[in-house]
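Entry 14. Structure prediction run on the chain below.
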Amino acid sequence: MYNKAIVAIDGSENAKRAVTKAIELVKCGSISEVVVFHSIMHKIAAQIPPAAAEANTNPATTDEIPAEFYPTLMTALQTAGETILDEAKETFDAENVPVEARLITDLTPEDYIFDMTDKEGFDLVVLGCSGHHSRVVEAFLGTVPTRVLHASKSDVLVVH
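Output returned:
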């Protein structure tokens, strides 16, 4: 039914259930190819004031993330992202389901989804209903699933 699915993960329980659902869909023949990704910009975006994010201001120049801490923060987020992806790959491997894993360092999850559905022709987006962020961030910025549901050109499966 679907040729290519992209699965957004952040290490949350909902994201883990999205991985499990993607595996089920591959096994029943509903998906032929899966790419799982983690964007470190999801964590950084929560630290950047909305006005700075909209103006594409370098996070290192905002009051929220002092410039001297930005390289350390990036390294820590990349390491954490690699761990999240490794766990997802292990889950796919345990079920003998092929997957490509990608660590995204320059785009928010929703921007990456929108870019990849256009560039690579993903026809299904799979993600958890909510991830790792505070209620305050949700109130001001919304959630990734909400933004993807409203703007995606592809079908979206939100897993609870």
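Strands lie at 2-8, 31-39, 100-104, 124-128, 155-159.
Filed with the rest of this week's runs.
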